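Lecture 7 notes: from sequence to structure.
We start with the chain below.
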Amino acid sequence: MCWASGVGGVPSPDTGGALNAVRVLAGLACTLTISACDQDSGTQISDSSFGAFEVSLAVSRDDAAVAWYDTRDGNAEIYLRLLDVNGQDQSMEYRLTHTIDQRGTAYVVFDAAIDTDVEELFLARLQGSRNSLARITSDDGYRSKYPDLAVGPRSIALTWFDERDGNREVYLYVAPDAEFSTQCELDGRRITHTEGASIGAYVASNAGQFGLAWSDNTDGAYDVYFQSFDALGSPRLAAQRLTTTTHSRIPAIEAWQDRFAVAWNEVARGAAGIYGEDTRSEVMFSLVQ
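Predicted structure tokens for the same chain:
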């Protein structure tokens, strides 16, 4: 886990470092040449009673991002906090990783053409010395692409886009973690039924429900959509269209209190076309539920 080069780290448990909190020194402008700074005892920025380890730090002119892993939830997860130039909080702690279930199994999902006609989905399950890798979509000659996975309290959601129906459509598979850990080929629910291409699907978990965001170009340019599902994968509400402007693509989604935060890039096409000098792309943000 590296956010910037040349930054020191907190010792990890296997190197004998009995540290259970991430601390930073005030005066972040001096971080990379710390011997020239006045050193204090540091300010605690993590809040873990189980141990926070292997801190990495990225520094800009006026602020910094600090990342580390700790085991407060029974497994090692990555956390992030933003600080100002004086080492004071600019944000709450953010848990960045949610890919380990209640049984302590970690999941990595990806698409690849491995002994298949085209790209299909593969899932690695990692639990101590019991590791496995399996293809989880059928070798049907139609591409299954760009998967994302979210772990909830009792179930796991997997999303991707698939070309099996002659168009790019978004699929979602939700199952209890015990079932998810033993299944081979997964047959997900088709979420989109549009004339355009539905791509770039990402999923997040929040308090027993899942939020799904994706892009669709049925109306000519891509727009961002959102839909929420319960712990069994049934829709809670109809899909919401979040954008009505040109070229809104590839959303990111995370839990935010009792809602979901969605961000995406929005392109305003210039007079000379998408690659013209007057074309602009900005990052947009919305809270949905």
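Points to note: Residues 174 and 232 are 6 Å apart (CA to CA). The longest helix spans residues 177-180.
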